[in-house]
Write a structure and sequence with these properties.
The chain is an alpha+beta fold. The chain has one domain: Pleckstrin-homology domain (PH domain)/Phosphotyrosine-binding domain (PTB) (PH-domain like), CATH 2.30.29.30. Helix content is about 25%, strand content about 35%. It contains three helices and seven strands, in the order H-H-E-E-E-E-E-E-E-H. A four-stranded antiparallel β-sheet has the order 1-2-3-4. A three-stranded antiparallel β-sheet has the order 5-6-7, with helices on one face. A hairpin with a 3-residue loop joins strand 2 and strand 3. The radius of gyration is 15 Å and the shape is globular.
């Protein structure tokens, strides 16, 4: 694997029992998709009790985004073309300043529209906010249509 899945998953609080599930999905996408997977993102949010709720697992290639919805319990996979197809991006954030370290109470939501019918939402909390900003710069900003 070219991605350091273990390291990233641990930064978002996934357990040693949950990480093999992420690797399984990575392996399955690698079997059905012929582009190199270049990045990973776990969409998640925290509860008022400061527990993380895991929503979706995302992988990025040079031209597509791959989503596994409710990835810890179901096999529900999407593939969408991203290359030069992002039409709209919206940011919503709390206690997170771009370019600064995230705090324990930081949250960041990025909504984007790829086509008239395809929309994606990425949610991040705590240290994962910085990863979402990195994903935006590497994979979304470079694919905004003008």
């Amino acid at each position: 694997m070219s991605l350091n899945i273990d390291e990233y998953c641990k930064t978002v609080g996934l357990s040693n029992i949950q990480i093999p599930r992420v690797k399984q999905i990575y392996a399955e996408y690698s079997q059905i998709f012929n582009q190199e997977i270049r990045d990973i993102f776990v969409s998640e949010q925290t509860t008022p009790e400061n527990l993380r709720l895991y929503i979706s697992l995302w992988f990025f290639t040079d031209s597509c985004l791959l989503e596994a919805k409710n990835f810890l319990s179901t096999d529900n996979y999407d593939i969408a073309i991203l290359k030069k197809g992002v039409k709209h991006v919206q940011f919503s954030k709390v206690n997170f300043v771009f370019g600064q370290s995230a705090q324990n109470n930081s949250s960041f939501v990025l909504d984007m529209q790829v086509t008239d019918l395809i929309k994606a939402q990425f949610r991040a909390s705590q240290n994962n906010c910085e990863k979402l900003l990195e994903i935006y710069k590497k994979h979304i900003l470079t694919n905004i249509t003008i």
